[in-house]
Amino acid sequence: MSNRLVILTWHSVNVHNNRYSGNDLVAFSEDLVQLDRLGWTILPLESGLERLERNDLPDRAVALTADDGSILDFASFAHPTCGPQSGLLPRLRHLLAHGRLAARHEPIISAFVIASPDARAELDRKVTGGLDLWPDSWWRDANASGLMHIESHSWDHNHDALDRTAQRDNRRGDFFAIETENECRIEVDQASACIERLSGRKPRFFAYPYGQSSDYLRYEYLPARGAELGLRAALSCEPAPVSRSSERWHLPRFVCGRDWNSPDEFAALLADVST
Ligand SMILES: [Zn+2]
């Protein structure tokens, strides 16, 4: 029995080469194989947290998350400079089909997507070279796949590349600036409603863009409004395992590329959090 759940995060859009250290997709496959080999058990985020609450978590339990919702979460993609890329879900399916993951796992990838179609289109034009990396056409199929849940990564990420965001003074580039009721209604409520409409399922988790949250959002808005919106918890990017004393609206998690950059670093991180 364990009293900690480790939440891990990859960004499928991080494809700079075809090696582990510059490609979150490559890292994802290798990390899953290593989790299996080292005796970890992959659980869905929601049931992992419920079992932590009930004191019913297996030893060495992890949940898988992906941020920003590029098409590479779900499908394969012909990358213009790095060649064909197999996405996170195809990689998970491949490992399952080839018996690389033991039967104890219940793998679900919680994919945190940006809701606003306009924001995604603008980000695609300005940030990812117009490759059409941010469609929402796959969200329904992802939720129906049995291996992925579409969750909320806000309305517009308050992303600095956008001309205009929900932030009242159009101050972009961090999520600390989302700190009024009106901004939160757009970034949280409107995002959830849009994702439910486009994906067929109401999001149950919110991941703070950049891992950042204002005191208002974290201590007032989500504690007051989160449950009625159907949200179970919000995720930060504070690098730590989740315990029963973790704050529901600020659960910690580890990020590939920041908290580990190689299979050895990943193994060291896992060893560190299981002692
Ligand atoms: Zn993000």
Total strands? 11
Q: Under the CATH scheme, which class?
A: Alpha Beta
| Biggest sheet architecture | 7 strands, mixed
Proportion of residues in extended strands: 15-25%
CA-based gyration radius: 18 Å
SS-based class = alpha/beta
Rough outline: globular
Mean pLDDT: 97
Order of helices and strands: EHEHEEEHEHHEHEHEEEH
Task: Tally the structural domains.
Answer: 1
CATH topology: TIM Barrel
Give the distinct bound molecules: zinc ion
Residues in helices, as a percent range: 25-40%
N-to-C terminal Cα separation, in Å?
A: 13 Å
Number of helices: 8
Description:
This protein has helices at 24-37, 45-53, 88-97, 117-126, 139-144, 181-199, 215-225, 263-273; strands spanning 4-10, 41-42, 61-68, 77-79, 83-85, 109-113, 148-152, 205-207, 233-235, 242-243, 254-255. The protein has a single domain (4-273), classed as TIM Barrel (Alpha-Beta Barrel), CATH 3.20.20.370. It is globular. The chain has 275 residues and is an alpha/beta fold. α1 runs parallel beside α3 (88-97). The model has no long low-confidence stretch (mean pLDDT 97). The strands form 3 sheets. Strands 1, 2, 3, 6, 7, 10 and 11 form a 7-stranded mixed sheet that branches. Strands 4-5 form a two-stranded antiparallel ribbon. It has a two-stranded parallel sheet with strand order 8-9. The protein binds zinc ion (ZN). Zinc ion (ZN) binds at residues 67-68, 153, 157, 209.
